[in-house]
Design goal:
Rossmann fold; alpha/beta; eight-stranded mixed β-sheet; globular
Length: about 270
């Protein structure tokens, strides 16, 4: 569906069902250079199992208009505006990589709107090689190819896919080539207050981490989990792009955690 956020048209996937703000809402936030398609399996399951779903394309990404946002802090603030424009009082928030940095900022800036936090391939900081950022400025497609070679595990590199007939590396590269990847990567590189923000959060948290993650290493994810007192699930033998590479395993962890949380905040 399309929503006006700060006078700009924003696209949000709703899992194949009409959005109903009266139902418990799950907000999915994509990673650097990606869009709502990262969450195809997860959004559909939640939409057909008692939840409403919102998976927006961040400003300037894919089907959303507006200028891309240049900092994680601004993205967190924008997410608050997005929820308000959608008629959502509070939501379970799920973020992948950069998306979880944005989710933490949302929970820090507007804590009353977050029922729970789920991070996938997450860490308190995401250092980015300056050479990759420069490559993305020259060609998002070439930088995406480099990034995805690091981002997916061995099985995906061999062409194995959880979705018959679809190759997630090719899909990821196609999406990233059209999006402001360099700005997203720079925003991650510039973000330095993740540990400070994590210490302020008081909300149920879980982290879903990858055993073969070369972008947000498992040790960094476990360190953040300790700060957040988060439930931890480790998906072995997979890489950083878990929502696309291991969608069923991610969904299993997400559905168990989110379904276990009893609503405690009233509209």
């Amino acid at each position: 569906m399309k929503i006006q956020v700060n006078t700009k048209e924003t696209y949000a996937a709703t899992g194949g069902k009409e959005f109903d703000a009266s139902l418990p809402t799950v907000l999915f936030i994509h990673g650097s250079g990606l869009d709502h398609r990262s969450w195809a399996l997860q959004t559909r399951w939640f939409a057909y199992n008692g939840f409403s779903v919102l998976a927006p394309d961040l400003p300037g990404h894919s089907l959303s208009s507006g200028e891309p946002l240049e900092s994680i802090e601004t993205m967190g603030s924008w997410l608050g505006d997005f929820l308000k424009s959608s008629g959502v009082v509070h939501a379970h928030v799920v973020g992948h990589s950069q998306g979880f940095l944005c989710a933490m900022e949302l929970a820090h800036q507007i804590p009353e709107c977050v029922l729970s936090l789920s991070g996938i391939g997450a860490a308190a900081a995401i250092p980015v090689n300056p050479a990759l950022i420069e490559a993305a400025k020259t060609s998002a497609a070439n930088a995406a190819a480099l990034m995805l070679q690091w981002g997916f595990g061995h099985r995906a590199q061999m062409g194995i896919s959880a979705v018959p007939g679809m190759q997630p590396i090719a899909i990821g590269q196609q999406i990233m080539a059209q999006n402001p990847l360099a700005l997203d990567l720079q925003a991650c590189a510039n973000y330095s207050r993740g540990e400070t923000v994590a210490d302020t959060l008081n909300v149920p948290c879980q982290l879903i981490l990858a055993g073969k993650d070369r972008m947000t290493p498992l040790s960094a994810g476990k360190s953040l989990a300790k700060q957040l007192s988060a439930t931890v699930s480790v998906i072995e033998n997979y890489g950083h792009m878990l929502p696309m590479e291991a969608p069923k395993q991610c969904l299993k962890a997400l559905s168990a955690f989110i379904s276990s949380i009893k609503p405690s905040k009233k509209p």
